[in-house]
Design a protein that fits this description.
- This is DNA-3-methyladenine glycosylase I.
- It comes from Pseudahrensia aquimaris.
- It is a single chain.
- Helices cover about 55% and strands about 5% of the residues.
- It is an all-alpha fold and about 210 residues long.
- The protein has a single domain, classed as Endonuclease III, domain 1, CATH 1.10.340.
């Protein structure tokens, strides 16, 4: 008799147990197995992720993932130095770009956030240094995720709420507590691969070896 998997885990066609949310979608499985939760310090990738999490608001991450290369082309590889120089004609161009999410408010927000990222880089040294300074807070009083229902219910934490408030204070937009927590999960500031997921220990090892900026 096959052993039943803990709640929140599924077994893929490759026989590996993983978190429930990629289901059996190949591109989503690759993202889960190779990116989600792996610690990241590159400023452009951090900027990309927090902006794309803002675009995701009201949508699924899979929708954004499948358009990610289009977003990268549209927003100059998320080089915030270049995006900060976008003008109104760029906004109009992007609103007409069927390859991305054509939400004017989110497009304008990305340009605004690029300007704020430049300020952060100047004041803090790098985005990586500033965002990773939240790691200790993110680990405190954080519920242990055991199951699918607990992960779905988590949504945000005290740390992600505080991060959201600080970003908004600095002038960033579309950075609510849920967006900030999804960012923390994806960038490896926390490891929310469920117990029993074949990626959990890989991510833990990567975090242990990661050189904080």
């Amino acid at each position: 008799m096959a052993q039943e998997l803990p709640a929140g885990l599924i077994k893929g066609a490759d026989g590996k147990a993983r978190c429930f949310w990629p289901e059996d979608k190949p591109d989503y499985v690759i993202y889960h197995d190779t990116e989600w939760g792996m610690p990241q310090h590159d400023d452009f990738r951090l900027f990309e992720k927090i902006c794309l999490e803002g675009f995701q608001s009201g949508l699924s991450w899979l929708t954004i993932l499948r358009k990610r290369e289009n977003f990268r082309a549209a927003f100059a590889g998320f080089d915030f130095h270049k995006v900060a120089a976008f003008r109104e004609d760029d906004v109009e161009r992007l609103v007409q770009d069927a390859g991305i999410i054509r939400h004017r408010g989110k497009i304008v927000s990305t340009i605004n956030n690029a300007k704020r990222a430049i300020e952060m880089e100047r004041e803090e040294g790098s985005l990586g240094k500033w965002f990773w300074s939240w790691e200790e807070a993110a680990q405190q009083n954080r519920p242990r995720v055991f199951s699918q229902s607990e992960m779905m219910a988590l949504g945000k934490t005290e740390a992600s709420t505080a991060l959201s408030k600080e970003l908004k204070k600095r002038g960033w937009s579309f950075v609510g507590p849920t967006t900030c927590y999804a960012f923390m999960q994806a960038m490896g500031i926390v490891n929310d691969h469920l117990d029993g997921c074949h990626c959990r220990e890989t991510v833990e090892q990567a975090r242990a070896e990661f050189e904080r900026p």
